[in-house]
Amino acid sequence: MLTGALLILAPLFLGFAIALSNRRLMTAIHYTVEGLVYFILALLGLGLGQMEGLLDQLGTMAAQVSGLVIVLLIANLAGLWLFHRWQPMTIDPDESEARPGYRRLFLAGMKPLLAVLAGGLLGYFLWSQLPLVDEIATAALMLLLFLIGLQLRNAGLSLRKLLMNRQGLGIALVLAFSSLLAGVVLIPWLDVPWYQALALTSGFGWYSLSGIVIGDALGPAWGGVAFLNDVLREIIALALIPLVIGVKPAMAIGYGGATAMDFTLPVIRSSGGLACVPVAIASGFLLSFLSPVLMGVFLALG
């Protein structure tokens, strides 16, 4: 497990250490990352499809995902509500914009699910014994993490300024702490060692990473559970943000987790106004950095 953790952290920090200024290169990296995400998610699905007794395990996986989603929802919203009481954040309703097309967002959210489904069908019906799937997935994951490190370093964001954004920093820390607390509560339900439970609750909505990392360390079944848990967080966040951001901005921004700096950001901006954008970016960036670090550390303890 220690080797696996180093494989997670080393390329991420290596990429973060390299500064780039070529816009064309960064654009190419962006599209490469997007392609790699769907490729690795398809490999995750392929691994699921190749599992012996997959159909018998679906009920157990559904129960595990349900427990994760429900307990994390309660713990995260409770923690963020308390943070809002301590550090209230107000927004100007006049700054809100027309809401983005939810149909487009829904279709974008379906893409990773379709990638996993396609891989699962191929693994179940056609390639049940395809060799080197794990090795290819691991190599692709290392490349993905290196490129993500490059993206985080060269996103035009000052780490110092992000850390000085008290609202964003506070939201990120509360979301992370309440998620880990939920992991402790879920240990009996998931029936796994404490470090694995904490790893499962450290995805913070970053499904394209959590499903891959957890699947690589604990097997395709747990990778599928981690993936579905974080995909459902994103879907719930899209519905929750417009409802609560006007009265509890911290809850709306925080529950989106790592996606607050990218996928859910348009909804945060349109529903909460421009004042929410720097907070969301700071929170999402910090959670994006914390997620692989925490997963790597907890998985190394095994």
TrEMBL record:
Parts of the chain that traverse the membrane: 6-22, 29-49, 61-84, 105-127, 139-157, 169-190, 205-228, 235-257, 277-301
Record PANTHER family: LYSINE EXPORTER LYSO (PTHR35804:SF1)
Superkingdom to which the source organism belongs: Bacteria
Protein name: DUF340 domain-containing protein
Gene Ontology cellular-component terms listed: plasma membrane
Transmembrane helix found in the keyword field: yes
Native source organism of the sequence: Marinobacter halophilus
GO molecular function, one term: L-lysine efflux transmembrane transporter activity
UniProtKB keywords: Membrane, Transmembrane, Transmembrane helix
InterPro entries named in the record: LysO
